[in-house]
């Protein structure tokens, strides 16, 4: 466990500038998501409210299909995870990785803001328990992955334009070990989102929202 913590700390310590840029884009995305809900039109808000109400009603007595949910969570995670790694392997991936950071922050801010406002005071609790458990792991992993892939893309750019690069074997070996650690932690987040969060959401929905 100490090895994992040391590796994560090294990522942030060695690449402070990348970490700052990623965090700024992520927070900017969250802000956009919050303000989008605030200034959403009434018709759009009512449509989403109807969907959210039907969702909370439907989960009241239905058993959770964990197998189907697991596949959905994995698919959702890979849709964002794989493009960032792919972009990190290209010399032009730098700005696109930052755009994905912005999108990730937007979806998180939008989801939390809408759920919180949908049920007034009760929505804050529902929003927290719906988003927080898995994102305690997802967000640090996502930020660390973005920092690593920004670094990879920057090195590719230097190699392409300035014909300069680090010792490739050491760089690739170190990067690969960090990516493996992030994927293991990401897997833990997937398991939490699949097997822990749904039960908590169902409990809160039954007790406070229905």
UniProtKB/TrEMBL annotation:
InterPro entries: SpoIIM, SpoIIM-like
Coiled-coil annotated residue ranges, if any: none
Superkingdom of the organism of origin: Bacteria
Chain ranges passing through the membrane: 17-37, 78-100, 107-129, 135-154, 175-196
Keywords tagged on the record: Membrane, Transmembrane, Transmembrane helix
NCBIfam families reported in the protein's UniProt record: spo_II_M (TIGR02831)
Name the UniProt record assigns to this protein: Membrane protein, DUF95
